[in-house]
Amino acid sequence: MQKAELARRIKEAAYLEGDFLLSSGRRSKYYFDKYLFTTKPELLGAVARLVAEMLPGDTVRIAGAELGAVPLAAAVSLQTRLPFVIVKKQVKDYGTSKPIEGVLEPGDKVTLVEDIITTAGQCIKAADALKAAGAEVVKIIGILDRQEGGAENIRAAGYAYEPLFVKSDMGV
Known about the structure:
Blueprint: H1 3-14, E1 15-21, E2 27-32, H2 35-38, H3 41-54, E3 61-65, H4 70-80, E4 84-87, E5 100-101, E6 109-117, H5 121-132, E7 136-145, H6 150-156, E8 161-166
Parallel strand pairs: 3-4, 3-6, 6-7, 7-8
Antiparallel strand pairs: 1-2, 4-5
Helix pairs in contact: 1-3, 3-4
């Protein structure tokens, strides 16, 4: 599937209008429901193929923050045969109590995949957690950038960033 066709299909599947509270705390008259496209194999697979092409050559591991980016990280992992890790939003006080699930070695060059980028607050926290665990975050790839300051915030935090799509690609 070509990129323009994928943008059209993601919009058809996941674009909602109304009054929405975003995780950033902002309100919006539109919302892209990531679960409405990441749960469709044909769309998730197409996204994974395009993201795989965007990976820096030195990437040895994919990362995704729970919960929304986990299917994206898993799909890119399957596409590239690179292992992935899950960055928890909150460490649980039971089980292993680890902030990152999966194998992450000190010095691993990691590409973090994120779903929807607004201000990128959660994305930056995930990247910081990977860094604190000894990984080098070589790039952050956002599937859809709402063009509301997230790209600037990611770069200001010291991370390389590239979106697969921006809001204008969706005709919004």
